Amino acid sequence: MTRCSPSAARPTPGKIKIKSFWQAAGTFQPQNQWVAYTPAFRIRYDVEGDRAHLYFGCLYVDKAANKIAAHTNSEDTLVRVNGRWLIKEMKAAPVPEL
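^ thats the sequence. predicted structure below, dont judge the formating
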């Protein structure tokens, strides 16, 4: 989880956890030739002042195998600090088969 103090827009150690998660994800491995596809109907958001909720589902298509390699979603809580939107909490998970 990335946390920000009310007086600063600089993320604290949670940023490292989020970065590590994405660096280890199959979608970003150089040997994989995956294309990400998030259709508009899989994106939902709700904004209330300086807080927001974001959900999106994403399909990763393996170009070489011509098939879906992964199907994931992300359920996120966002906050606006000094005019910038930051991730406060991110819950990413695989989605069962289509």
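Residues 14-24 form the longest helix (11 residues).
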